[in-house]
């Protein structure tokens, strides 16, 4: 099936394994005029791997507001763009949201391609209930805000998912163990990469496991809440 022509494409990239990119994503990247990306060096390596040569435009969290206006103007004039970030879906804990808002206010047509997602991959791999879940992005750095958010996750009747730094994950798990030692959690790390691992257990078990050997790499933290304690899925009959 031929690709419908859009002016701007939001293209998700692999979260670790380069082979996870879709054929459609490669076709779009090879057909547009310019690729807006979070890190030109990082994206350049991926494009080189697949033999794609295109002009790259840097668009990251510090310049997205200005770039959004520029991309809208250039796209309105006929230039076609692909928008990518270093990994995963643009706009999900990554640049892209401001550009989407600018495009919505313009007459420039855009579309979003499906693709790799650390959130969904971690959710399924964790074995946590997946019929209802909450994604909270990166956990707050300040301990008070973090503790309050983790308290809500422990008490929720759905699975909660967060990104967390390897430098703060141990303290976050210790906080969970203090709130409720028996809370079921999972630490999914380095997803789709060579050293991918899923650490599953209660908060107190994983706090002990990581006390001397903290996990490294990119981490997704999943908290089962009350719906995961008996292995039963949430009852959605009320909706």
Q: What attributes does this structure have?
A:
elongated, Cobalt-precorrin-4 Transmethylase, domain 1, single chain, alpha/beta, disordered C terminus, five-stranded parallel beta sheet, 239 residues, Methyltransferase, Cobalt-precorrin-4 Transmethylase, Domain 2, 8 helices
Please tell me about this protein's structure:
The chain has helices at residues 23-31, 40-49, 64-76, 97-104, 118-126, 143-155, 169-179, 203-210, and strands spanning 8-10, 34-37, 56-58, 81-83, 110-112, 133-138, 159-164, 184-189, 197-202, 219-223. It is α/β, with parallel strands linked by helices and 239 residues long. The protein has 2 domains: 8-112, Cobalt-precorrin-4 Transmethylase, domain 1, CATH 3.40.1010; 118-228, Methyltransferase, Cobalt-precorrin-4 Transmethylase, Domain 2, CATH 3.30.950. The radius of gyration is 20 Å and the shape is elongated. 35% of the residues are buried. Mean pLDDT is 93; it is low at 231-239.
Provide a quick synopsis of the model.
This protein is of the alpha/beta class and 239 residues long.
Strand content: 15-25%
Residue share in helices? 25-40%
The average pLDDT value, as a whole number, equals 93
The H-and-E topology, N to C, reads as EHEHEHEHEHEHEHEEHE
Uncertain runs? 231-239
**CATH structural fold name of the largest domain:** Methyltransferase, Cobalt-precorrin-4 Transmethylase, Domain 2
Tell me, briefly, the overall form.
Answer: elongated
Q: Could you name the CATH class of the largest domain?
A: Alpha Beta
Query: Radius of gyration, Cα only, in angstroms?
Result: 20 Å
For the largest beta-sheet, the strand count, sense and barrel status come to: 5 strands, parallel
Number of domains: 2
Relevant CATH superfamily of the largest domain: Tetrapyrrole methylase, C-terminal domain
What is the spatial order of strands in the main beta sheet? 3-2-4-1-5
For the secondary structure, the number of strands is 10
Question: Which CATH architecture of the largest domain would you pick?
Answer: 2-Layer Sandwich
SSE-based structural type: alpha/beta
Helical run tally: 8
End-to-end distance, in Å?
37 Å
